[in-house]
Amino acid sequence: MSPQRRPIFRQRAMQHYIQKKEKDILPRFTSPLLLTWLWLFLLQISLLGLLIFTIPLPSYTTIPGVILPAASSGHGQTTVALFVPQQMKQAMHIGETIALTLHSGDAQKQAKIVAIAPNISQPEDIQRQFALKADSATTLTTPVRVVQVTLTTVTAPTKGSEVLAQLQTALNRSSQFNLQDPTWR
User: Fold this and answer.
1) All structural domains of the chain with their residue ranges
2) How many Cα atoms within 13 Å fall on the side-chain side of residue 152?
3) 136 and 64 in contact (C-beta within 8 Å)?
4) Cβ distance 169 to 59 under 8 Å?
5) The whole model's pTM is what?
6) What is the widest separation between alpha-carbon atoms in the chain?
7) For residue range 50-105, what is the model confidence (pLDDT) as tens digits?
8) Can you name the CATH fold of 59-172?
């Protein structure tokens, strides 16, 4: 009987030893410190983008109006009639401030709402009541609500001249990006 040759080491131990010796060598394109800084930068940009997306932004609409003749308003006070479209479902309140531009080159001025008409008026009625020019009447195509505002001016503006008001219509940015809204896609 001849003695059988048995390996000194077990087969599994040999495989483990060979795997330890064979290291995966990856190419080193950049330093690990640079990779860490790049990942941190990517994280900061992502957080900044998320923050910007969640901040509510105001949305404004431009509303036409005319300067009313000076009645019993105080010195330097100008009364303006604004024509707010009926579709605007925003609740306006007396005492609220809005931004007005008297002439195309002027800076915006703050004005306070002093009266809100309870009823809706047709464009033809507005044209007759305020004696609007033909080019002003073309901007009014839908029923409007008349809102009177007062502002303090240094120079008296011309009666009947046009003004533009910036009225805040929305403050929620997420409503503009509603994924369930079929018109957004």
Assistant:
1) 28-55, 59-172
2) 2
3) yes
4) yes
5) 0.58
6) 132
7) 988 888 777 777 888 888 876 545 567 888 888 888 777 666 778 888 878 776 66
8) Elongation Factor Tu (Ef-tu); domain 3 (2.40.30)
